[in-house]
Give the backbone structure.
Amino acid sequence: MGEPRGAHLPVLLRRCLELLAPALEPAGRSAVHVDATLGLGGHAEAVLAAHPNAVLVGLDRDPEALRHAEHRLAPYADRTHLVHAVYDQLPAVLEELGLDRVDGALFDLGVSSLQIDAADRGFSYARDAPLDMRMDQTRGPTAEDIVNTYEAAELTRILRRYGEERFASRIAAAIVRARSRARITSSARLAELVENAIPAAARRTGGHPAKRTFQALRIEVNGELSTLEDALPAALDALAVGGRVVVLSYHSLEDRIVKQAIAARVRSSAPVDLPVELPGTGPTMRLLTRGAEQADPAELAANPRSASVRLRAAERIDHTSRPIPAAAARERPRRIRAIRQPRALVRGETTRGKGHDNDP
Ligand SMILES: C[S@@+](CC[C@H](N)C(=O)[O-])C[C@H]1O[C@@H](n2cnc3c(N)ncnc32)[C@H](O)[C@@H]1O
């Protein structure tokens, strides 16, 4: 297997480890850490190395990323579960593994360098490839399907909302005109169309003219925001008391979803005019970060991917108010493929029945 490890430095790695550490050494049992976006396994490897008793549940929707992570995490095979799943399937994955609580959870959102750099996946306007952009190439519509079938108004909405593209309607009109002559099938053709649709003066500012269009299509192809809206509350609800979540987002819309999901749990849900908390209405989490943290200059210099990162973290402080919804826990993963099961979840015990924006 090609070795893309050096190409990817895990973003804000030291800070992630520091924030997760207090949750990953619970007394008398092994910690369970969920890496919801395993990617090339950089963060996961560091967590496993730093916490010799922690068990990893690593999810990725991209089978190729899982293959790379499996290779990288081979030294820890006895305490890793690697699962092909979308992260909104986390409750079902945990149930399938017989786990009822999680101590650490990390979401490092977006695409990996493996995906951006792949010559054939179409994420990048900088290299010609079929217009695919699916993180999971085994299912779902491609970017080619979207640019060749969506109405102009719908394309405009996506480009404006997910790409914050000023010239969304001009680009959408150019796409519709071009596809009436010939189907748009390649990233180079799309990048060329976008460039020509933008006023000449605007082409000289704000990076590559196609950057925002490619980002918007990628978000649409992979349903990134709606999946996150479902997944994050479920992950927060799966945390044990003292459990911690860290989220790295790279887009303001992602960061807003993260901020809101956490904010809903750090404040009381009791009526504001009540002098005391009612049972079950108190905060269930506390913030570990003030606002969203960003990369410092040293990290920015070493790791360009960190330029747009926003980190938020929180800790579970009460387990009474919001249990995992029973329906979500019962739902089976649609297509779950555990590519590796650990030999033992907790030393000496068996796994079963333990109840327990990126710029390409
Ligand atoms: C930025 S990379 C993670 C890199 C990783 N932290 C590392 O250190 O190597 C994001 C990964 O999350 C995966 N991913 C994105 N959205 C996902 C989702 N909804 N469910 C599961 N995996 C997802 C992508 O396929 C990609 O491999």
Remarks:
- Residues 2-6, 321-336, 341-356 have pLDDT under 50 and may be disordered.
- The chain has 15 helices and eight strands.
- The longest strand covers residues 239-249.
- Residues 224-238 form the longest helix (15 residues).
